[in-house]
Structures are given as C-alpha cells and as structure tokens.
Specification:
This protein has 286 residues and is α/β, with parallel strands linked by helices. It is built from 10 helices and 12 strands.
C-alpha cells in the first residue's frame, strides 16, 4: 500500500459499477515504481450523481481521474474543455484538472494504436482494416486509426445505420481515409480476403459469444486479429484465429497502453516501462 500523507496527490476512476476495474492495480504500481507521491482511488458514482461527483472532484483539487461505463459520454457537459481525441470519439476516459478547468481526453483509441504496434507489429497505413461494431468503442478506435494514417476502413455492424453515422462523421473529420459500411448480413469473402486487420470493438466474446457474419477462413495468412475484449481465458475470436494460424491478441495491451497515456497526462512523465502490464499479470494469477 502506498503511504498517504498531506502532500499525496490524488487521481482515481469513476464508474458504476467500479469494483471490477483493474486500473487501481496498474496505476498504483506505476506510481510506486516511479517514486511518485500519488494514489489512485476507485469512486463508485451512480449516473444520477455524476454532476455532483464531478463538481466535488474539482473542488477537492484531484489531479485528474479516469472515466468508465456508464459515464464516458454523459460526463462531457460537465467538463470545461475537450481534447481532439475526446471530441472525435464523442467520449471521455481521462480527465485532468488544469488551472481549475477540467479537460477531457480519450486515451482508448491511441492506446489501441499503441497496442497494435507493440503486440501485433501492426501500424495503420495502406492496409485494409475491418472494424466489427459501431458503438462508442468503435468510434474512438476508428478516429485514432484515421489519425494514425489508416487509408481504408470497413465497418461491419448488425445495426447498419449506426455504422453509417460513424462513417459519415469520420469522412468529414478525416477525408484522407476511405471509410465504407458493409451493407450485408455477412462480410463478403472478397472483403475478408483483402483485410489485413480484423478489429472487434464489441463486447461479444466477454461471455463466450461468437461473432456472427465474419468467417475467419477467408482472411489472408498475413492478416492479424485484435479483440478489444479482455479475458484471462481467451475470447472465442482470438482462439479461433490462433487455431487457424492467424496472429491474434485480446485487449490487455490496450488496457495497459491507455493507462500509460493517462499516467503521462496527469504526471507529465512516462510511466516505468512494463510495470503496468506486469502488475496486471500478477493480479490475474493471484
């Protein structure tokens, strides 16, 4: 346990529920390893108390805090400014108190890009990317991929109007990227055969569900699969891809990378290398 004293700086995370969050483990490990006098605390905040909680955190002078479900979008009206990452994603997962003003960021998307590079040696470019899902996670991921140089993205979602809405918005923000919606119940063999990265942004797989409409058999041998769902036992998508000889990982790396970026926003320093990931690994096996 970190030693808390009068000069200890406080950061935390708000959400409902919050008991499952792994962020306190990895952030406090990084603060300790970096010899920083910070403590990271979870705060359970119900939706009807969100505004009061944000005001209270600001008045108390916390350095900042993470935001998780269900507050990532609803917190926006209570902040003073948004970074481009949060504005384009339409969601906030990190807040910093700067000169008595609350500034919202979204480190999820850039954390994904970091993890793609570290865990799969994949960097957005000319390759075609297939994104499954059209919720808030998909919006943030697509925005970050566009900022990182992605040239062609297909969106596949059961509710196609949601996918079309994201495509319309992103085409305005990032005209250099070709963004198309899969207008069918299944992804065609031709589309899959040209896909270099399959990215699942939905919660499917968290309870063992399979993703309908995407047949991994048609992916090229050089394709890579990234499942934003994090599961100690592995998700069906990751296991199926690996069984087919396709390199695949789950969202652990993204969880770590978004946390590392939040750490830098709050402290102005890079976190000690590898500490957050090792802390999560140790917590998972404890």
């Amino acid at each position: 346990m970190p030693v808390v004293e009068g000069k200890t700086r406080v950061v935390g995370i708000i959400g409902d529920p919050i008991g499952h969050s792994r962020s306190p483990v990895m952030q406090n490990a990084a603060f300790a390893a970096g010899n920083l006098n910070y403590i990271y605390v979870p705060f359970a905040v119900r939706p009807d108390n969100l505004e009061q909680a944000v005001i209270g955190l600001k008045v108390l002078g916390v350095c900042g805090f993470n935001v998780t479900i269900p507050h990532k979008s609803t917190i926006i009206p209570f902040l003073d400014n948004l970074d481009e990452s949060a504005e384009s994603a339409g969601a906030v997962n990190t807040v910093k108190l700067c000169e008595n003003r609350l500034v919202g960021y979204n480190t999820d998307g850039d954390g994904l890009v970091d993890s793609l590079a570290f865990d799969l040696a994949f960097r957005p470019g000319e390759e075609q990317i297939l994104v499954v899902g059209a919720g808030g996670a998909a919006r943030g991921a697509i925005a970050a991929l566009c900022r990182s140089g992605a040239k062609k993205i297909h969106i596949f979602n059961r509710t196609r109007e949601s996918a079309r809405a994201i495509a319309r918005d992103m085409k305005v923000r990032y005209p250099e990227t070709c963004i198309e919606v899969v207008e069918a119940e299944t992804v065609s063999e031709q589309c899959l055969a040209m896909t270099s990265l399959l990215l699942n942004t939905t919660s499917l797989g968290m309870k063992g569900e399979r993703i309908a409409g995407v047949d991994l058999v048609h992916l090229p041998e050089y394709a890579k699969v990234y499942d934003m769902v994090y599961s100690n036992s592995g998700t069906p998508l990751v296991m199926e891809a690996r069984a087919s000889g396709i390199q695949a990982v789950n969202g652990l790396g993204m969880l770590v990378a978004q946390g590392e970026r939040a750490f830098t926003i709050w402290t102005g320093r890079n976190p000690p290398e590898g500490v957050m990931r090792r802390a999560l690994d140790m917590a998972s096996t404890a």
